[in-house]
Amino acid sequence: MRGLLALSRVIDRINALIGQNVSWLILVAVLVSAGNAIVRKAFDMSSNAWLELQWYLFGTVFMLAAAYALQRNDHVRIDILAGRFTKRTRDWIDLFGHVVFLVPFASLIVWLCVPWFLRSFTSGEHSSNVGGLIIWPAKLMALLGFSLLLLQAISEIVKRIAVIRGLIDDPLLEAHDPAELAAGGESMPHD
User: Fold this and answer.
1) Which residues contact 77 (CB under 8 A, 6 or more apart)?
2) How many CB atoms lie within 10 A of CB 40?
3) Which GO terms describe its cellular component (predicted)?
């Protein structure tokens, strides 16, 4: 188990580094959007390439930060139900969900994305919009995003098993505000 926990820490560090740094692309997307809007209003000109670049940037942030959101427990969940269960029951539900749903789904998407990306890359596929961008970078981000999500799911499975066995303290609790924990809000993410 020690080796798996070491692997989990490496995966966590990689996804934290990517997740924390990719957020800067939101600023770039906003600047591109603002610049495109100013040019469109001031000069009555627009560019499909600039619009597509905005989509690519936002999609990149969404795809590459998904694994980090899972790691920090900032993903969407149904707290109305989960809040009623004990911590141990929630750990078992998370473990079950990761093993039965997340790993198979992310694995399938990665498997399907590889040929999808390779066909686009080798053919030099371009957008069908006039002046549009090449498409393979967006498809690469989908492949990378789901690959990182799959790795993070494996890391979360290892950590949930270790927490359930009592081998480690719950790393999710470390990311939360102690005041929330004292008030019984242990499932609430820290801002």
Assistant:
1) 187
2) 14
3) plasma membrane
* CA 102 to the chain's CA centroid: 12
Residues 57 and 174: beta-carbon distance below 8 Å: no
How many CB atoms within 10 Å of residue 101?
11
Q: How many helices (H) and strands (E) does the chain have?
A: 9, 0
Assess contact for 142 and 150: CB atoms under 8 A: no
Give residue 78's pLDDT band: very low, low, confident or very high (50, 70, 90).
Answer: low
Query: How is residue 11 written in tokens?
Result: 């995966």
Question: For the purposes of burial, counting CB atoms within 10 Å of the CB of 45, is it exposed (0-12), middle (13-18) or buried (19 or more)?
Answer: exposed
Phi, psi angles (nearest 5°) of residue 23: -60, -25
Going by C-alpha positions, the residue among 180, 77, 12 that lies closest to residue 191 is 180
CB 188 within 8 A of CB 176: yes
Q: What is the dihedral of CA 156, 158, 162, 167, to 10 degrees?
A: -110
Are 167 and 159 in contact by the 8 Å Cβ rule? The answer is no
To the question of pTM greater than 0.85 for the whole model, the response is: no
| pLDDT tens for each residue of 135-153 | 999 999 999 999 999 999 9
Strand-pairing partners, residue 175, are: none
